[in-house]
Structure of 6-phosphofructo-2-kinase domain-containing protein:
Amino acid sequence: MSVSRCSSGGCQGRTQRRDWKVCMTNCPTLIVMVGLPARGKTYISKKLTRYLNWIGVPTKEFNVGQYRRDLVKTYKSFEFFLPDNEEGLKIRKQCALAALNDVQQYLSEENGHVAVFDATNTTRERRETIFRFGEENGYKTFFVESVCVDPEVIAANIVQVKLGSPDYVDCSNDEATEDFMKRIECYKNTYEMLDETLDKDLSYIKIMDVGRSYLVNRVMDHIQSRIVYYLMNIHVTPRSIYLCRHGESELNLKGRIGGDTGLSFRGKEFAKSLAQFINEQNIKDLKVWTSQMKRTIQTAEALGVPYEQWKVLNEIDAGVCEEMTYEEIQENYPLEFALRDQDKYRYRYPKGESYEDLVQRLEPVIMELERQENVLVICHQAVMRCLLAYFLDKTAGCKVESIFLNIEAVNTHRDKPENVGVDRSREEALRTVPNHL
């Protein structure tokens, strides 16, 4: 068995316009990032995109800097960003328009729900252009501004940006830092922050110094409120989140799903091995969370430290199929067994849950994990899958590694069979069931 560690209202419009679009309550949302370079805009964009996709809202990020790199293959220096560099201005405008065209295609033609437009957008004129673009296409526009005045925060962001930026792959650290600082100065002269008076009609959140304080204005709908709630919970402090499945249970040995039995002998050995591993890590202020089921609680008890029980971390509810083997489910509910194989994520057990339901149930856990520092979560197979689905998006700045504790356990994973038809034979339905007692 193993442990996984993860580090790291209506649409806005103007009634006097004659060319406005009729917009239903589910019209697309355009999120527009605002801020100087090295203020964490791309980090926020990626995390927000990951979160919205995880909760089932189709979302895509459009990074204008990447459009610029695709068009201009070789980056020379900060001079490209000087306000009086006409060629640079022309190219940057061209890239922004290309990104907006792709936004339009995604939201209007590809059934996207949210687009994140990741660029500096530091002038009021540029933001007005984007807002009009949103109006003309029937999108709700929400601005996210990241403001940093703390020199330590800015310095840390610069290190992260320059180390990861393709613009500086052939530069020394000192050269990259000097050039990037000059690039920031190019934007400072024309930067116009979102203003409580001048921009009072816009929907936005202003984030100061990576969450020290917030200013929220005119949140217009459910999606915008969820965006605000999420952004007010994330932080950038390095930490480790350990996701661990409970030790082998008595029902695991028998090939039965769900239930609430205690650990088997090997499960108890795993709990001891987990305790030894955690003690060796010497993790500062580690919090331990479990579900309210016996097998996770018994796994945590071996640690000999305080732990919190979360009902929302309980295993997926298999409804009428609780404590059945796969063979018994096929025998008693062959149609249900086939339907689950056809769409495992959306299939809901009779009187039970689907993975889609489970994701919604686990959202408070994700929010709290984003707020916490070092945490060990002892949970269940389906729960861990959903949590890993959130953290495995490596583009969002999360490093994931698996840690093996070398304790044998029964295999509870069943691969999707080739034949998922409702008229399949019993043998075809059970071909991928793992061995059990």
Notes: The chain has two domains: 29-232, 241-431. Residues 9-25 have pLDDT under 50 and may be disordered. The first helix runs from residue 41 to 54. Residues 52 and 253 are 37 Å apart (CA to CA).
